[in-house]
Amino acid sequence: MNDKKKKIIQSALKLFGEKGYHSSSIQEISEASGLAKSSFYNYFQSKEELMITIIKYYYELLVDRVNSIEEIVDLPTREKFCQQLTIQIKEFIKHKDFIQMQLREQSIDENDEIHKLLFKLRAESIHWYSMQLKAIYGDKISDHLLDCTTMLNGIIKEYMFYIIVDKIDIDTNRLASFILDRMDGIISSITSIDKPLLDTDLMANFINYKLNTLENAKSLISTEIKEFKRIIDASNFSKLDHEKVMSSLEAIEDELANDNPKIVVIQGLFLYLKSFNKPIIDEMISRIDQIVKSRLT
Amino acid sequence: MNDKKKKIIQSALKLFGEKGYHSSSIQEISEASGLAKSSFYNYFQSKEELMITIIKYYYELLVDRVNSIEEIVDLPTREKFCQQLTIQIKEFIKHKDFIQMQLREQSIDENDEIHKLLFKLRAESIHWYSMQLKAIYGDKISDHLLDCTTMLNGIIKEYMFYIIVDKIDIDTNRLASFILDRMDGIISSITSIDKPLLDTDLMANFINYKLNTLENAKSLISTEIKEFKRIIDASNFSKLDHEKVMSSLEAIEDELANDNPKIVVIQGLFLYLKSFNKPIIDEMISRIDQIVKSRLT
DNA sequence: GTCTATATAACGATAGAC
DNA sequence: GTCTATCGTTATATAGAC
Predict the structure, then answer these.
(1) Which pTM was predicted?
(2) Which residues numbered 214-243 in A keep a CB inside 8 Å of some CB on B?
(3) Chain B residues touching A186 at Cβ < 8 A
(4) How far apart are CA B110 and CA B248, in angstroms?
(5) CATH topology of domain B3-188
């Protein structure tokens, strides 16, 4: 991204965090970026497009950082989630303008695209937390997964509000493990309950959103990989290369068959396939990668 | 309050909840109230004054409803708090436009008076929840009172967001007891921890705010009551009446000496004192009542 | 790509007739 | 108290010179 575009994003974000979206004008944003008002429109078509860019940019930043230790660190699930939570909290604080903006104005609804984007991000966030809690506490809480995710989310938000908006100096190294210890208490108290408050019917919009994009992407990618295999079979690769490529493709298919496929595994395999330096492979990968990026991230 | 003024408040609140404070214009508010734009200014000096009126009006409504069963219902503390939570949740839903507005825009900061008001209400809310939790779980959690209040607040907010903003149909009869059962789990998990995340030093602004107004009010009222007693002594009441009035005043002093004086007890005693139908008593009461209203509600 | 100048609309708030 | 008319300001966004 252009340096000046980044400058505008940062200036705008700072203002949005401090004064809110509606109280920050293009005038102020441009001035804070060292530009005249009208020059803003060389970089963004409108204030709303700026907002959408900001949300996408920072959300991706946060997700990437958390995902980065999904595979690298080899730890018990609970410890790994605790580390991910700690990283998430520290990233929240690092990009506190973004979080403050989100905490202040939970929904900038008037624009439909922003509304849909925020809904998508919420659905993905709920899905991610649910998967992590399921991995830690196992099937015994699967009925109460949505309730547990909701409570965890509420607790994290409330502490983040104190830290970022009220500028209260909480020990961030302890926060994640403190909250997780409290989740232990919540979960041990929950097993005796018969019926959850939130079930998959009530939360269908959130659940199905993620499911649809996931299943959709899986099916699209699956089709592409079948085509990929056909092309490789028809090409004049050495027997060894042919075998390597095929087993890579099958590994991708295996990963996609999981409930919660790991994007980093797939992208690692893409890198491996790219190392063959064959244009025909690169072209197929870029087609699949586009689906992965648009539907699974 | 004037009927038309109420109409404006309700129309405005609906718009603020749906579109947000900044996206709702005086024009829209006036039209929704069946008035021309300029007629709005016959009822409110400005948009900000309208906002302040709305916040004070609805917050008082909610607090009064919850306080109404503080004394009337004779139940174990835990059951009473559970009932109060249930009432609070149902009141939240009844006045969902107000809550939606609060959830959407956590702070309308640019105006200093609104900022101070919202801070005061937050401090009072934190104080109330802390007192309730202390009453239920006793001294064993007194070190972790602020953490427990924070988590309880976060959980309630998150569920309210689902109910009011996402319109998810959660069983509100079960919600309060469900959350309280989870608080049991949180509290039983917390006893082993040595050091809380939030202590009274970090939260000094919130704690002291309530403390200052409370101590301040106590001292002011105490002075007034001493003067009151002096006047009664000098007046020509019958011996019986004199005794009754004096013991009422002493009961008020006793109540104020408590950590968390109950406003309803004091106001009950005011009503009793008014029943004497003496102008001199009524005048004193109205002076003290003004202090109570402005500092303790 | 940058700027000045401007178009156009909406905003909060006021004046003054009735 | 209600309205119409309008003020002064600010907002987003565009036109066009350099």
Answers:
(1) 0.83
(2) none
(3) 182, 185-186, 189
(4) 45
(5) Tetracycline Repressor; domain 2 (1.10.357)
